[in-house]
Design goal:
The chain is of the alpha+beta class and 588 residues long. It has 14 helices and 20 strands.
Length: 588
Amino acid sequence: MDKKNTIIGSLLIVAAFACYFISARYAPTPTSPAAIRQAVASQAAPAGPAPFAAPQEETAFAAVAADHAGSTITRLRNEFIEVRFTNFGGAIRDVALRKYPADLGRPDPFIFNEQHKDPMLAFVGLPGLDRGTRFQLVAQSADGVTFRAVLPNGVEVIRRYTLSPDASGATDPYEIRYETTFRNQGDHATDPIRVLLALGTAPTSPVDRGLYLTTGYSTGSKQVFTRRAQLEPSGGILGMGVHGPVPDIEAAGPLKWSSVSNQFFASILTPDDAAAGMTSRRVKLLSLLPDTDNNAYGITGDAAFDIGSIAPRGQVALSGSLYVGPKEYHRLANQDVFKADQYKVMQYGGVFISFFSGLLITLMTWTHSFVPNWGMAIICTTLILKIVFLPLTMVSARSARRMQKIQPELTALREKFKDNPQKQQAATMELFKQHKVNPMGGCLPMLITLPFFIGFYSMLRSTAELRFASFLWIHDLSAPDTVGHVLGYPINLLPILFTATSFFQMQLMPQPTVDNSQAKMMKFMPLITLFIYYTFSCSLSLYSTTNGLFMIGQQLVMNRGQDVGDPADKAKAKGGKPMRNVTPGKRK
């Protein structure tokens, strides 16, 4: 039976690897941002909507929009961002993040909303007031612009934008303050309307492949995120949950903030007065690809606001702030009370895991202030955690060592009381007591350190600081550390190194009492972790490899030392008889 179970387990692992390599071989190649820009530039630009046009018919996805002919661009910039405004819609065409390159090895900055359905903060789907409405630039300064337009119904619309300075205690340099004022210059009150403000369009990339493309919002008590996959057609599971493409997903307010983000960057709209709702849609950014190819799509969102009737000569204002920048925990977590939960846009997980992720990114950022390399910061953070948990791991290692030492006695007890489970259990506990063995001693450290591992995984997958950060042979700590290809398959070195470390660590660790088939299956666990880690961010493999090397060093020290805390050994050292196993209920 043991041999049969081992063969079955081995075949399952081989099948898992075969499925991985076959799927990698025939999976569609992800499209890089550079390729997207080149393809979009080469294709015919779609004509923009005419001013005061009626909304287009609802489809399963939105199309990317081109700039209007004759549009003018106005720029504001600080050290961190350059904001480009368009006079059509009086809105933000895009934002260049000057500290973050678009591609590895190139100086061009990443541009948020470069390809889009609408300019950011443009009005959406409102005839007479949308991205096709021409505004006049009426004022411009070093840190602000003002646009003005008069609608056919006599309502004057004034849009003011103010860019935060490079360094300020009150605002963030990635933050743009906005205010839109509606003034009724007519003799009759206006009708109440609902307006939608565009949040921007987030594109995919070869790193996240659409897994982290989301829209999100906060009600204050909860945060909800919509993944692009929820808008895509689904074949369901076992015939359940089958649906075609979803045109849009709507959420009701009031909403404290709304966001659009990919793996590393986000736009977050925080109005002074809560939004009435939000709509999420897919945007096809690359028309050269078929509609069934998810690489062609980004995601966009619109925040809804209700504007009541405006009396003659009266006015109403919409105001707030728009953050467009990296998903940096220390930046998003240090906001004022109204924005206190914006760091949730990083999607670390539930409250429990989010706590550990926030603690770890804070520790890693602090470590980076002393070690100016993110790879070294990960290693130092791992070592700090190992040192903090060293007493627990020493207790675990000591318990495992004593468990291994008393295996012959445990085997004898099982044989002696094989027909009496109650006496067997009682005798086993007495043996543990004699040798001061805690059967849970090996599990407790794992249970304590597991949240830190999950927190590390959640934190590392969306940390903008690691994007294009190099370390040794690694060019990008946020991606797999591919060093070459063999027959078209990537060779990722760190997961292989971690697997080798795990194999060696298993040879050093005292083995618990398991049957032969389980012991053989345990030997395959490093191969399973290789399969899991292979396509993950190499920063996770770096953390795990460092952790494994520390454990190996610790175990080598433990194996060379002597266990001086076993009472049974002390009894022998004093020349007395070793403590005997006493069957419960019997006395001699």
